[in-house]
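Protocol step 4 of 6: structure prediction from sequence.
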Amino acid sequence: AWIAGAFLGPSAAALLATVRTASRVIIQLIGIFSRAAMPLYARSIATSDHGAGRTITRINDALTVFCLIPGSIVFAIFGRPLVMLWTHGKLEPDESLLIPMAIATLFNGIWFFRSTLLLSINRHARFAATLLPLTGLFILLAIPAAKAFGLPGVAAAVAGLEFCCAVSIFILSGRLKAAA
């Protein structure tokens, strides 16, 4: 939101931050399971109970398919009235902001839920090392995107970052499986 504020003004920062927060409600709801599964997943890895680990991963994946994807679609379609209701009509986002933020939410949820499993077994350092340069790159990309396209450009940069994080977490998860 600071890029939006610095290059588009404080009202743009407020709108982006509000839309981003509202778009993340579904992630918070699914995160209840994801965070609760962390000790169970850690135990499954520590005891070499591969069946339990696969079950937890499959439940995470099922929550993504059956909750996160529909939740992101619902936000893309109904995000405007939801944000307007929440802000008592003070903020009115349009689809050019809502759609990329809904896409960002989807990819954020995908990588976030996988990363909590890595965190639970203390294997998240490689992902953190990937996340830092990706974030720096997309901050740099968001600046010209903000200047050229306004808030939708910033939202597209956020969606791009979340997509790259999702790809990175799947690559890292595959490498960890191969090493196990």
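Step 5 (inspection) to follow. The first helix runs from residue 2 to 8.
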